[in-house]
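Comment thread on ticket #2218

A.B. wrote:
> Attaching the input chain for the structure job we discussed in standup.
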Amino acid sequence: MKNSLVDIILARMVNESIKLDWYRGKSCLITGGAGFIGSWLVEALVRLGAEVYVVDNLWRGSLDNLKKKDGSYGIPLEDHFILGDLREYREGRVK
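C.D. wrote:
> Ran it. Output below, let me know if you need it in another format.
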């Protein structure tokens, strides 16, 4: 059975003696977290015990990328997903 990308990343972190407990309980904001790469990062951080927040405008990403194999989402969307574009925030258009 092939390992997922997250399993490979976590195994490499263990081999490089990175303290995995460091992420437990930390809040992390992932921009573009519904995209291909961002969703893998979200999954890895959730598995490490981080509280993950995602900002994405869904221009190229999809909420389906945040789904786990069982069909549920890896983060509580109502509290941890923000649909928006950070460029609009900078320009004062996001309320």
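A.B. wrote:
> Thanks. Noting for the ticket: The chain has a mean pLDDT of 83.
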